[in-house]
Amino acid sequence: xxxxxxxxxxxxxxxxxxxxxxxxxxxxxxLLEQFPSxxxxxxIGNAHLLFGAYNDLLLKSEQLLQPHDRLVFxxxxxxxxxxxxxxxxxxxxxxxxxxxxxxxxxxxxGIGLLTAEYEEWKKSRKxxxxxxxxxxxxxxxxxxxxxxxxxxxxxxxxxxTDVEVDVLDYVLNTNLDAIVENTMGIxxxxxxxxxxxxCTALLDGFISVTERLLSPWxxxxxxxMLYLRLTGKIESIKRLQYLxxxxxRDNLNDSHNQKIEPDGVDSSRTVIDLLIKRRLKEPxxxxxxxxxELLQIILAGVETTALNMSYLMLMLAIHQDVQQKVYEEITxxxxxxxxxxxxxxxHQLKYLDQCIRETTRMYSPVTITGRRxxxxxxxxxxxxxxxxxxxxxxxxxAHHDPELYRNPNKWDPENFSEEAIAERPKGSCQLSFGFGPxxxxxxxxxxxxxxxxxTHILRNYHxxxxxxELTNDDLKMDLMIRNKIGYPIKFTSRQKVKV
Length: 499
Description:
Oligomer: single chain
Strand order of the largest sheet: 1-2-7-4
Number of helices: 19
């Protein structure tokens, strides 16, 4: 059989398979006709439209969606409904409670609070809620202050020099130290020098998962595992999993020595204690499953908050008038030698709060979130979304909607004044932490962490940068929005600053 004959046979098989699939899923295809789509090809769908666009994925996505509010994009043979309008996104987040089923991140992050199906997620959310209660957040503040003070100390070698440093690495390590100590009850020093390895592996993971998402041929598990081994990325997965594995092993040994009881309620327990309690109580909650849950808590608390903090510092360095206003708000609240309390951080730094929320809007830590419909869902204009449909909400575009923001591409803290918020529909202001039943459990933790760090930084240093502004040309997107040139900041001691 020659090559031509093989090609013809394969083509016939693909066409026949698609015909049979359409006949079996007639309702699905009828509903999909309501939505615009680009031309598709067998096996790859629309994926060819994103070939070679990794570093410019944000711009490419905006170009593809620019004429459409809703778009069916075929990820290989799988149809995906892409949404960019806040009202569609809110409807889907309320009605669709299961995560998407492509499972492109499972090899890196496993199954946990971020990726589990709804029923399993509900168990995890209920179990972990005590660790993120108001009482526990208040207790975390002391650790936040300690780590922020260490951050200030680490910067001293570059203060009052002409050196600009990329602050992301500093913030990543600070956040990792804080979340491990707050939610695991241990110091990073006890884990050995694994912090930098973890953060490097974390970035490798985000890049690899994005590459897989854009490459349908990497979706099958066995092909992706072969790819990971051939490229050496499997070692990054091992480095990423080492830290939570070590924390879990050490604490499991302690739990046997202390004879932790699986029953009873103790709201003072850390995340690791709550996980071990569930591990002892539920035989099906395996050690691997426990490790993955722990890993996802660390992932969510490190990378997203670090990027938000880095963008915030860069924005304050660019917008000197805003930086001065935040600095004055802090110094009017407490004197130089006073420690800011949890209550003050939560409720009294209102302008700083506006700056953080505006930064989250402009440079959302979560650019895309996925759901799968377990039944047919109805959008506000009565358009029906098919059951068992993969839905992707593009948070970044929703946050730059001119219907919601007068100048959506300009960083302006006044977008989150009380008056501005009141003018917008409920739920449309901040989609980065989700909406509805599956909203992020750590949203208040992240806000408290960023506020503590920035108050320490601004009380000690003035920020400046050579960067004049950021445009979409400066940004790249994996699962998150990153600045191509980093986050360059020059630090000057407050005593040497003339305002």
